[in-house]
Each structure stands twice: as structure tokens, then as C-alpha cells.
RAE2 geranylgeranyltransferase (Mionectes macconnelli), 616 residues
Amino acid sequence: RNYYGGNWASFSFSGLLSWIKENQQKTDLADECEDWKKLILEGEEAIPLSRKDKTIQHVEDFCFGDQDSAEGVEEAGALPKLPVLGASGTKEVSPGSEKECPAVESPCPELESQEPEQGTGVEPAGATEGNGAGTTSVSESSSGESALELGQTEAAPSETPAKEPKKITYSQIVREGRRFNIDLVSKLLFSRGLLIDLLIKSNVSRYAEFKNATRILAFREGKVEQVPCSRADVFNSRQLTMVEKRMLMKFLTFCLDYEQHPEEYQDHESSTFAQFLQTRKLTPSLQHFILHSIAMVSETESRTLEGLQATKKFLQCLGRYGNTPFLFPLYGQGEIPQCFCRLCAVFGGIYCLRHPVRCLVVDKASGRCKAIVDHFGQRISAKYFIVEDSYLSESTCTNVCYRYGTTGQICLCLQNSADIIAKLHSCASQVSILTVPPVELGKPAVCVIELCSSTMTCMKDTYLVHLTCPSTQTAREDLEPVVQKLFNVNAEKGKKTESEELAKPRVLWAVYFNMRDSSGVEKNSYSGLPPNVYVCSGPDSALGNDCAVKQAEAIFKEMFPTEEFCPPPPNPEDIIYDEDEIEPEESGLSNSAETKPEPSTEESSDGGTAAVTKEE
């Protein structure tokens, strides 16, 4: 590929349009030159790799409302015609004279005002206090627990006269395309999850910054409500009666140490978590909050223990970095793979883009993979090979049964009118997560993540909204009912007559696609792979990143059973350099301000430091 991270990548707007076009092409790439086959020697055989990524299906993109002319816009160039989806269906819209897309509101206009934004920068251990406005410093205390230091946050907007809503045009979105960092996969980081712990332990956290998720939302009886999470939230909530507050606190306290009280749940282990909640004498609203917004598990499939474990994890993550359990990386999830690449590069690791691999070369005598052959006709030898699932050919995956997830991404424009500001105040600083229950029997719940411009994922005065769920049909068929409940997708201005439609935020642009989930596939399901070839999956369907961390550690331990996984890097002053290994620094070619030791196979993940600046 010509971008980092595979299906974990983040794109600018023009980059995403290119990705969409690439994945809408149905034809397989023809192998124009087969000279590489001459490099397979006697006693060897080749395992061809797939030329076409088939993990993405049913890609559909739409511009809602009038699509203005974007000819000559430098960021994306000439744009194709996009279908416009209205109440009457889909139709083609040709680029015409520039027209303004209608302004829209935040998805949750009925909520009370929230805390101002808290940008979270995860700094190296021992970072000094006072990192500047809107940042958070994380360091390790003597007890091993992370200490949090909050900087000053942005002030709430001052009271000003009502202004006309800002108008956003399609060409403006294209022109400001570099302001967008749109993830292919929608995830949040649990503050006590495996990935955050690994980032701190390995000191990869120095390359990333994070922002707190500011609110957990629930969708019930056609309304969006804020879910009280912490003890203070529960007792300050106006949505709950005093009796409900006591019920909720009692149940959450039980969930924190449910293992100590097996008699409370043993008789319900075979029941669903939803059925177990009904036995706890909780009101319907409390059951809804716990099931969909705290445990975030399936109403029909998740068993009691799964729900209790999820609730406990949610509660344990509260308060570490903010009032919710979640963090979001600035510039998108695609930053995380690149952060690990940066530390790898300090010790000589190389990440090659636009470098296709034709096949794996297997020694017939030993049955082990000994090399790869690339499209330049080079043989690259190694002891171990890690292959992402999407590169394996259909003949290798004949016995594999895949699951699919559904993803929709929506670009919103913020309504800047006085009545919205009065209700939300600093609404532009919100990072929200909302679970929408199944719209009908047999349909999955939909997870909605709303990102504001301060996450560096979208341009000012817009929101980026991700919707995900397990697939039952195409992405559009799965998600469109939820989109119509939450947003105004009427393309024609003449249809803006109902007050409830006017209250909904208006969608400017959207893309739907299905992504394959291979996280549950065992290695023995793949046919004919040598023992030193390890398969990793793409993104899984869970909200967090624990699956990827466990998978990476398991592969590492198979290759290097005596080595520590992602050990803490040494302090720069503790690194001893051999004079023979120090090479003169070539002007303009140095990857780091420091001289680096020559890496070995065992040392490639050891520590070190580097000065890394954020690329625009």
C-alpha cells in the first residue's frame, strides 16, 4: 500500500476518496510480469500472495444536499459525481455552480452543558508538570500507578450576540481535506486497557497525544440522554430518582467485586446479561443504561459473566484520566501504528511503502519459509515472517470462516446558532460515545462515536461521526435506519418542514463499507502455511484494542520465548556505544538527532530515545 497501517489507517479527505475509488474497483490486478517465478530455485516452492485486498466490501459514498463544483481545488482535483440520498431515494447530481451545504447541529442538542474540553497528552515517564494549555502529563509514580496532571483547558465561549450559522460547501471540505484524519476503524482506548499500559511501559507514549471522551450517551424512547458514570455523576443526575440512584450504586458496587459473591450470579450464568438485570430489581431505565452504555454488550447474545466482566472493566477505568473510561488519540487511530514504527525506526527498523510482495518462498526439505520475492525481483531472506490476513490468497483461506463488521462515517457541520450554544456551551469540545439499541429484532446494536475538531480529525465547525456494528447485510442497509433516527438526511431544501427534522444535525457527506474481521481465526485454519509464518488479523469489532495487543504479544512470544515483550527503553545516558559501531552522521540522512546502536534480532525492540516532531 502507499499508506501506513493497513486497515488501521487514517486518511485525509482526499486520501479517503482515493481509498474509496480503489475499493470500488471490482477487477483483480493482473500480474503483468511473472519474471519473479524464475527466482524460485530447485527444491523450493512458492506460496503466491493476494494482489487484491478483499477485506473491504460494499463501499458506497454519498454527498447529502447540493454538491458544489470543486474543479481546480488543489487538495483533491476533479471529483466524480456522487449520488445524493434523499427521502425519495438515490439520484445523480452533476457538479454545478457553487452552492452551500446546509448547516447542521451537534447530534445531541437536548443535553445540558458539559465540562470544557480536556486534551490529553501522554508524555514520557518523569515528564515535568505544566505541559501547557489543554494537555495532560502522565508519569509513573513510585507505586507504579500513573499520576495525572491536567493543564489549563479552553475557556467556554463568551456570551456574544447570535450569529448566522456558518455555511460549509463541498469544495471547502475538499480544500480543507488535510484537516481531516478519518479512521477506517472506530475505536476508543480504555484508560486501564492493555494498549495504554503498553504505550506507557514501552515509552511509545512519547509520540502520541490523547483526548478524554467527555460523555457517555444512551438512546432511549427516541431521545439521547447522558449516562451518569461516576459516583458524583449519579448523585448529581436529574434523570434518576433517589431510589434509582441507590439501586444503581448498589449494583455497580456489586459488579466491582462480583467474583467474591458467586451466589449472586451462579444461578444465572446460562442466562443473558439482560435477563440477569431483570432479576436485580432495577428499573427499565437503569437496565437500559447498564446494558447498552456501561457494559455495552449484546442484549440477546451476551451471557451474565460477560456482562459482569464488561461492567467491571468500565468501572475500573473511570477516573484514571477523566470522568469517563475512554481516551481518543489526537489525529486518529492511525497514529498508534505509526508511533510504534517511530520507535522501531530509532533502532534501524524499515517500513516500506509501495513495495508489493509476490510470494513466500518455502524450502521443500525443511518445510520452512526462507524468503520472500518482491515485485522488483528481489529475494529477501529472514527467519520469521508475519503476514496480515488480507495478503493471503483464497487457496490458503479455503477453510476460514470470516465475520464482517459494518462501518459508516458521517461528516457533520456544526450549527452555531445562539440557542444551541446556550444549551451546549462548549459543545465543540465534545467526544461522545452512544449505543443505539437494535431498531428491530435480529438487528445488532450500533455504536456511535462523535469526534469534534479538537481531536484533529476534522475541520473547524464540523463533526466526524463513526457508526459501527456487526454485519447482517450491507453497511448501508445495516446503518441507514439508525442514521435516519439520529440525523437529517433530507437532501432537498423543500423538505425541511418538520420541526423534529430541523432539530436533527444535517449530514454533509457519508461513506458506508463492510470490513472483514479475522481476529477469531486460528492459525491452523489456514492451509499450507510453514511453521515460521505467523498470521495477524486486521482490526477486530470490539470497542477497545486488547485483542491486537494480545495477538502481538502471542506472536512475539512464539518467536522469542525468553525475551520481554516491549520492554521499557533505557535512559539515553545509560546507553553505551561501541566506537566501532558509531558511524559518521551523513548530512540530511539521519533519522534521529542521536547516534543509534546497530540493532540485532534480539535488540530490535529495546529502548532508546528520539526527537520526533509532528508532521503536518
Notes: The domain at 230-317 is CATH 1.10.405.10 (Guanine Nucleotide Dissociation Inhibitor; domain 1). The CA atoms of residues 192 and 310 lie 13 Å apart.
